[in-house]
Write a structure and sequence with these properties.
hydrolase activity, 7-stranded parallel sheet, binds zinc ion, alpha/beta, HDAC_classIV, histone deacetylase activity, hydrolase, globular, single chain
Amino acid sequence: MTCHAAVVHSPLYACDIGLHVFPVTKYARVREALAGAGDIHDSEVLEPPHLTRDDLLLVHTEEYLDDLDQLRWTPRTMWSELPLHADVVRAYKVAAGGTVFASREARKRGLGVHIGGGFHHAFSDRAEGFCYINDLACAIRVLQRDGHVSRAAVVDLDVHQGNGTAGIFRGDDRVFTLSIHQEANYPVPKQRSTLDIGLENGTGDAEYLRRLEEALARVWEFQPEIVLYQAGADPFHDDLLGGLALSLAGLGQRDRLVLEGCAERSIPAVVTLGGGYARRVEDTIEAHLQTCRLALRLAREMAERRV
Ligand SMILES: [Zn+2]
């Protein structure tokens, strides 16, 4: 089956972070599962291109990038909750290239699927919460610089607020940042997104989807030229770092509201995987798989309509 969406991934994402709650092997497992089921041909998966320092400087500061390059443990890098090794830093830089690439391709094909990315806790000048480089922000800034888009939206549905992304784009009226998250969870304090929906502990499918529909109406009104979707799997009810109560089916409906909403409006959309720390890693992978499969199906339908 030909894959119409751009599917992007690098084996480098499986860097060694030691014994950790963040399952970095999930990316390769999602790719293998998609290829194994015939959703994609492995040979169609695109390798992220290298980002230049100028690209990264569109989002991050010189001092912070120097700390990363020199592997210096400073107040700018120490809140990553990750080791600071060369292969770890490289994984995050490559992932930023992956989201940039998936976004460029999404402008041509309608959809980009990055089996990676969604590192929304990285600020312009510091790391936080398992995130060194904010790939979502890099993608938007590179596309804007290159004249591919002016107005962009980030739809961040990870259980944790997209504080880094909100901080980076604060005061920029060309970028709409939506974050729907669990209010009583990391990060504390939160940053101000364009629209924040802080949900009560234990919020389930029906209430979540109702609030999401209302929020998306505001995104559609904004008329973005691209949507970066942070499709975190951690709103799942059995997540170790999340306290919401979505079912797998609820997460699937969530994905449909976002991605079908974009497709109906001909807005290019980019999937990034974001967080996911289910007690059983298979549940995290299943949630990511259903997001990717929906995107692939929508891309196929778009291509069929074009013929
Ligand atoms: Zn998260």
